[in-house]
């Protein structure tokens, strides 16, 4: 009997899945795949929190953004491929598990990359993931003649760029790549990575499912919010080690939780599946724009961890810096969420003035720290995000702008 796409058989031909497949949702394998990213996100968030607490936020931010890009792009590569070609047979599952192993190697290399700029673990983890991913694309090219050139372009592009990452690692390790050139080299290779899908799909479009993609992005958002809760709990544990529960501690911890709830609410106010279905040509902006949204959520978690921990510790970071470690990513999340969803939305979810106004207020609130303290600032940030939700949910009395 021929294998089916439910994983009940050994072998199934890798065909492009229908764009309008009914009731398409995340598979158990995709959910397992996402769990491997929990380790990587937790590692990069914890490292960034340490950098903030040690008053090295700006230098730590560069490493955070680089490592987070590697994590996000690995997740992106798998997610969009799976949306088009998941046939759930034995070969597909095994190659996906190879990619999961690569994610875990990447996660193990995060501390060295963030602390010492040693990207060997991250690069070799990526090499392992790329073996699985490129094999999947080659198989898709062989078994789906209509999109053979597209699949082989993906395979060739990712293979060449993986060679570029290995060359960058070799040059840096032998001292032939100046330290000042390491970040520019990373940026160039990252831009080329982003260009691969644009180039590959010029021949024929893959058949990703809009509602499936929207669900997958929502699930990753929940993972990041969960990591932020975990980060805040680490701060709670650190604060409780040296002090009893007091007013500022309760206010910061409670307000941080409210802030995360508000960010979750804002993200899911406007489901993206319908917009992606109607405006598929704008999917690149939507998909790539989520790098900033996801990174901002992870950074909020790091900032909240430090804000809670400072209630029981004397940290090297100034109170103003700690406040901005929460406010800046929160404001970035609000603005980027609006910018990314606007091109696919049938109508704006909020009045155009509400989002930038709220973001501006969030960025100004840390200046009140000398008067209301860190706890008061975090509480005000949470209140501002809650107010934005109220403004969005309140029906407009006039025509939408």
Task: Compile the SSE list and pairings.
Blueprint: H1 28-53, H2 57-85, H3 90-116, H4 120-143, H5 148-173, H6 179-200, H7 210-240, H8 247-267, H9 273-278, H10 283-309, H11 319-341, H12 354-364, H13 369-393
Provide a short characterization of the protein structure.
With 401 residues, the chain is mostly helical.
Explained architecture:
It is a single chain. The protein is mostly helical. It has two domains: 28-200, no CATH class; 210-393, I/LWEQ domain, CATH 1.20.1410. It is built from 13 helices and no strands. The chain has helices spanning 28-53, 57-85, 90-116, 120-143, 148-173, 179-200, 210-240, 247-267, 273-278, 283-309, 319-341, 354-364, 369-393. Helix 2 runs antiparallel to helix 3 and helix 4 runs antiparallel to helix 5. The protein is globular and about 65 Å long.
Tally of separate domains = 2
The low-pLDDT segments are: 1-8, 397-401
Number of helices: 13
Radius of gyration: 22 Å
N-end to C-end Cα span:
58 Å
Binned, the helix content reads: over 70%
* Highest CATH level, the class of the largest domain: Mainly Alpha
CATH topology of the largest domain: I/LWEQ domain
What is the count of β-strands?
A: 0
What fraction strand? under 5%
List keywords for this structure.
single chain, disordered N terminus, disordered C terminus, I/LWEQ domain, globular, 401 residues, 13 helices
């Amino acid at each position: 009997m021929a294998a089916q796409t439910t994983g009940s058989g050994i072998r199934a031909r890798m065909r492009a899945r229908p764009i309008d497949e009914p009731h398409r949702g995340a598979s158990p394998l995709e959910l397992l795949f996402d769990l491997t990213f929990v380790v990587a996100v937790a590692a990069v968030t914890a490292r960034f929190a340490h950098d903030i607490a040690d008053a090295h936020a700006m230098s730590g931010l560069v490493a955070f953004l680089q490592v987070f890009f590697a994590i996000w792009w690995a997740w992106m590569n798998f997610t969009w491929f799976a949306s088009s070609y998941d046939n759930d047979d034995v070969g597909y599952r095994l190659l996906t598990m190879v990619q999961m192993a690569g994610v875990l190697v990447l996660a193990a290399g995060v501390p060295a990359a963030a602390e010492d700029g040693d990207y060997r673990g991250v690069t070799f983890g990526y090499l392992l993931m790329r073996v699985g991913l490129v094999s999947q694309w080659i198989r898709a090219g062989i078994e789906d003649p209509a999109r053979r050139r597209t699949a082989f372009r993906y395979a060739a592009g990712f293979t060449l760029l993986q060679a570029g990452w290995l060359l960058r690692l070799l040059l840096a390790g032998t001292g032939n790549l100046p330290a000042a050139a390491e970040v520019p080299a990373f940026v160039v290779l990252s831009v080329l990575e982003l260009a691969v899908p644009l180039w590959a799909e010029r021949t024929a479009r893959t058949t990703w499912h809009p509602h499936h993609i929207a669900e997958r992005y929502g699930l990753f958002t929940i993972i990041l919010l969960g990591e932020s809760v975990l980060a805040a709990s680490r701060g709670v544990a650190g604060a409780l080690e040296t002090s009893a529960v007091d007013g500022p501690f309760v206010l910061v911890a409670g307000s941080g939780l409210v802030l995360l709830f508000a960010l979750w609410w804002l993200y899911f106010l406007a489901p993206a599946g319908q917009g992606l279905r109607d405006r598929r040509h704008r999917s690149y902006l939507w998909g790539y724009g989520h790098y900033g949204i996801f990174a901002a959520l992870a950074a909020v978690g790091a900032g909240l961890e430090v804000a809670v921990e400072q209630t029981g510790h004397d940290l090297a970071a100034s109170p103003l810096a700690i406040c901005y470690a929460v406010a800046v990513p929160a404001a970035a999340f609000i603005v980027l969420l609006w910018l990314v969803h606007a091109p696919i939305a049938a109508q704006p979810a909020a009045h155009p003035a509400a989002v930038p106004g709220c973001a501006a207020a969030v960025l100004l609130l840390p200046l009140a720290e000398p008067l209301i303290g860190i706890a008061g600032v975090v509480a005000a940030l949470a209140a501002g995000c809650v107010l934005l939700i109220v403004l969005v949910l309140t029906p407009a009395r006039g025509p939408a702008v």
